[in-house]
Amino acid sequence: MATSELAVSYAALILADEQIDITADKLNTLLKAASVEVEPIWTSLFAKALEGKDVKDLLLNVGSGGGAAVASGATPAAGGAAAEEAKEEEKEEEKEESDEDMGFGLFD
């Protein structure tokens, strides 16, 4: 990660920790106070990406597998459809040729 991206990331984390809305102006102010020069595009990109999001919640739920929670709350009809889709995906995976079928092996 480039130094400018890292600096803006830290500034966004500081603002989130203080429960201040993350805006490009506030990021620029914080970076200027730290004597870090960053192209303005980075602060606006980070501000737009994090607009309306709870950064602390994002950090706490990294890799939590939120998809499983959605699937468990599905209706029985939707669960049947999901099971059919899973079976179709398994069939597609079986159809794919392996390297050995194509004459390429690990020890060739």
SSE blueprint and pairings:
Blueprint: H1 3-17, H2 24-33, H3 40-50, H4 55-60, H5 66-72, H6 76-95
Helix pairs in contact: 1-2, 1-3, 2-3
Task: Please give a structural write-up.
With 108 residues, the protein is mainly α. Helices cover 64% and strands 0% of the residues. The protein is built from 6 helices and no strands. The protein has helices at residues 3-17, 24-33, 40-50, 55-60, 66-72, 76-95. Helix 1 (3-17) crosses helix 3 (40-50). It starts with a helix and ends in a 13-residue tail after the last helix. Residues 68-108 are annotated as: Disordered. Residues 69-83 have a biased composition (Low complexity). This is Large ribosomal subunit protein P1.
